[in-house]
Design brief:
This protein is of the alpha+beta class. The protein contains 19 helices and 31 strands. The protein has five domains: about 110 residues, 2-Layer Sandwich (SHC Adaptor Protein); about 60 residues, no CATH class; about 80 residues, no CATH class; about 100 residues, Pleckstrin-homology domain (PH domain)/Phosphotyrosine-binding domain (PTB) (PH-domain like, Roll); about 300 residues, Deoxyribonuclease I, Chain A, CATH 3.60.10.10. It is a peripheral membrane protein.
């Protein structure tokens, strides 16, 4: 029996240089990375589907794979999504000829075939690549990784029902079927859903029972309130009851959403009806109109201010009143909030009640601005739970925050201290898949070589951001190790704020306990940049948060290794920034991640190498001539050419290369750069692979206080790197006296001195600039400039 591919494609393919008979996906991607010109391609046999082939091409530094499958009538076609016409071909040669032209459905035309080679493929670098064996199929890779991850998890579920055993059986068997189905027009996770079948049936029954009771209460309150849409609600209830017998996995999310919507609707209906009834019983009428008026903006004297000497005394008596509203089932209330500028206190009074509660400005622990509703503000008071208040509009919310900042500025005037400043420690270490030593305290004391901190100045930092790569220690064990080390070094119990793990890449954030209440909007994300941007052995993890009014982003990464793969590392950097869309602010989603935060720290094993001979690097290091080594650093060159890390800074490097040492030793004679590989000798010259860079808004305050490498932690071939910073606070803007937001001489402007744009289109459209900001209620546009065209032709500027 013969297969269609063998009958129609093999004879022609075997004579073509683009056909590679006995290579796998890893060797394919290595060949494409070495031939990075757009349109480079090759075809190989499929590892998973018998009789099929895989067409692989590269475009804009990204590798794309297309499966070529045999049809029932003995022809070949490129697998496509459902609904897309499949074009048949008699042979692979015809297929390549057709797709060598633009606009035929592929990401780019096939123009540069990659020829076969009989040389042995160079195996991956076991020290820093850790790629898997060439013969392994992708589903085996995923299965092996998931089983290893499962063994490191702390299981807090009941294992008596056999779920863990069924899960392990799934990961070693049926998961391969689910993986293979991902390439079909209608992928299904059939076997994964079977794992949760019994639990889904139990949840379905509970939801059906809950929905019946919610519908009953909804109908009761609607009838009591005289609603006219009871019939409409009843029809909706009947539709739900028609699905009451559904117990499958796919309908569970729909039922959960309907349940959530119904509970919210019940909350609104019952609250309105009970409030109306209570008002009728007590004889009180409901207040009408808006929530209230807000006093004039601070920045100038209030209306009817006395003149001359009485003005200052009267201004000290200013008390600004705000009306807000909270939400919640049975807890939605109107509040009057009075801000007393003279005494520096806030008074909260529920609408319609005589009792009130007063707090000093020091008891206001957090003001949390909502990123979804412009008028909402979360207020956390000492000894109280957070409560969200809805102001009448965004201006009222901003005015309230300005007044609180104004009070704090007055109270701190003359102290010479910035109580909003924060000290940050950033550490990165490629652990080399080895367990850490018992004592890693030197890392957290910023002790070693380079710009270090004297022991007397090694004070506890407010925030610790610890990034690791090739970490085979469980997250629980690693967190315990860090917490214990901080306790030993600073005699303080730090609290974990957040953590993110992607295979061996991990980022954890610890903060002082007294600062927990100052931190809001914590988010995390991760991006894979391993083989085909699918595996997580390379990639990045990120965590963002607000410390008071200062937004911070920390990204720990592990980029592609190899001296010759500089362009691949550059692409990894952009893939990570682009892939971490979850960290962006919703309003600024279309902007680059580096423009989203007051301070962004990017660190890890960046793997950029030094373009010098190994012995030359060692000699420079022994003479402490680090500048000569850094001059040939690949990352420095790429940054100078503005190919990557535009706008980033790095502290001066005053320490020897952190890679590659013999494990257990750290003298400058202990660098090891020769590796015997199957394809020959591979050189890994000593390099500054481990780095810490940062990017900050103009005008913000940040000062680097240390940047160096430890010399007494030797379990890996990399040395741990440390950096510390002092970051100034960002205060709520308060206009200076006489400089409000009015008109005339007192008006405030935003002036853009220079703006450059590279227009990549030949159209003659009139372009304009959209301006976004969290301090704006909407989007602003500049006026379209007079049409003009400037062309540089043979070095001569010509304007039309």
């Amino acid at each position: 029996m013969s297969f269609p591919g063998e009958r129609s494609g093999m004879t022609a393919a075997s004579t073509n240089q683009w056909f590679h008979k006995n290579i796998g996906r890893m060797e394919t991607e290595k060949l494409l990375v070495e031939n990075t010109e757009d349109g480079s391609f090759l075809i190989r046999k499929s590892d998973n589907v018998k009789g099929a082939y895989v067409l692989s091409t590269i475009y804009q530094q990204r590798i794309h794979h297309y499966r070529i499958i045999p049809t029932e009538d003995g022809l070949l076609s490129v697998q496509a999504q459902e609904g897309v016409e499949k074009r048949p071909f008699r042979s692979l040669e015809d297929l390549v000829d057709y797709y060598s032209h633009r606009g035929r459905g592929l990401v780019c035309p096939l123009v540069r075939p990659i020829a076969q080679t009989n040389e042995d493929e160079e195996p991956p670098d076991s020290d820093d690549e850790h790629e898997l064996d060439d013969g392994n199929r992708e589903e085996k890779i995923v299965s092996k990784f998931l089983l290893a991850s499962l063994s490191t998890l702390t299981l807090n579920i009941d294992s008596d029902d056999g779920f863990i055993d069924r899960l392990k059986a799934y990961l070693t068997g049926d998961i391969s079927v689910d993986i293979q189905s991902m390439v079909s027009p209608a992928p299904q996770l059939t076997h994964l859903k079977l794992l949760l079948k019994e639990d889904c049936e139990i949840i379905h029954k509970g939801l059906d029972r809950l929905m019946e009771r919610v519908d009953l209460l909804q109908s009761l309150f609607e009838r009591a309130g005289g609603a006219k849409e009871v019939g409409k609600r009843s029809s909706l209830s009947r539709r739900r009851r028609s699905r009451a017998g559904e117990t499958d996995f796919d309908s569970l999310s729909l039922k959960l959403r309907e349940c959530s919507e119904s509970v919210q609707s019940l909350e609104t209906t019952s609250f309105q009806m009970l409030r109306e009834l209570s008002a009728g019983i007590t004889g009180q009428s409901r207040p009408a109109g808006s929530l209230g008026q807000v006093a004039p903006l601070v920045g100038g004297p209030p209306n009817n201010t006395p003149s001359n000497g009485e003005q200052e005394d009267e201004e000290e008596e200013v008390e600004v009143m705000f009306e807000t509203k909270t939400e919640g089932l049975g807890h939605g209330r109107k509040y009057n909030i009075a801000v007393n500028l003279a005494e520096g206190k806030l008074t909260f009074k529920k609408h319609g009640e005589s009792n009130s509660s007063s707090y000093s400005h020091q008891q206001v622990l957090q003001l949390i601005k909502s990123r979804s509703k412009e008028q909402r503000l979360g207020i956390l008071l000492a000894g109280q739970n957070r409560k969200d208040h809805n102001f009448i509009n965004m201006q009222a919310r901003e005015q309230f925050c300005q007044l609180i900042q104004l009070i704090r500025n007055r109270m701190k005037a003359g102290t010479g201290m910035d109580q909003d400043s924060v000290s940050i420690f950033v550490g990165t270490w490629n652990m080399g898949d080895a367990s850490p030593p018992g004592d890693i305290s030197s890392w957290f004391r910023s002790a070693g070589k380079g710009k270090t901190l004297p022991h007397a100045l090694a004070q506890p930092h407010d925030i610790y951001a610890i990034g690791t790569q090739e970490c085979n220690v469980s997250e629980k064990e690693w967190l315990s190790k860090i917490r214990g080390t901080l306790k030993m070094v600073h005699d303080m119990d730090y609290e974990k704020l957040a953590s993110q793990t992607l295979w061996g890449i991990r980022l954890v954030i610890f903060v002082k306990p007294e600062h927990i209440n100052k931190i809001t909007h914590v988010q995390g994300s991760q991006v894979r940049t391993g083989i085909g941007n699918a595996l997580g052995n390379k990639g990045g993890v990120g965590i963002t948060f607000f410390y008071g009014s200062v937004s911070m982003c920390f990204i720990n990464c592990h980029l592609t290794s190899g001296n010759e793969k500089c362009s691949r590392r550059n692409q990894n950097y952009y893939d990570i920034l682009k892939g971490m869309g979850a960290l962006k602010q919703r309003k600024l989603n279309q902007f680059f991640l580096t423009n989203q935060f007051h301070h962004l720290f990017f660190f890890g094993d960046l793997n950029y190498r030094v373009d010098l001979g190994a012995t030359e690097i060692v000699e420079f290091a022994k003479r402490e001539n680090h500048g000569s080594i850094f001059k040939e650093d690949q990352l420095r060159k790429q940054m100078e050419q503005k190919k990557i890390f535009v706008g980033f800074d790095e502290a001066p490097i005053l320490f020897p290369p952190t890679y590659r040492f013999a494990r257990g030793r750290r003298s400058l004679d202990d660098y090891v750069w020769v590796k015997q590989k199957r394809a020959g000798i591979r050189l890994n010259v000593p390099s500054y692979c481990d780095r810490v860079l940062w990017c900050s808004y103009p005008g913000t305050i940040i000062a680097n206080s240390s940047y160096g490498a430890c010399t007494d932690i030797m379990t890996s071939d990399h040395s741990p790197l440390f950096a510390s910073f002092q970051v100034g606070g960002v205060k709520q803007f308060v206009p200076e006296p006489g400089r409000g937001l009015g008109s005339g001489e007192n008006q405030t402007f935003i002036i853009v001195d220079s703006l450059k744009a590279k227009i990549q289109t030949s159209s003659k459209t009139s372009f304009f600039v959209e301006i976004y900001s969290n301090c704006f209620e909407g989007t602003y546009y500049n006026c379209t400039n007079a049409p003009w065209v400037k062309v540089v032709l043979l070095g001569i500027d010509i304007e039309f």
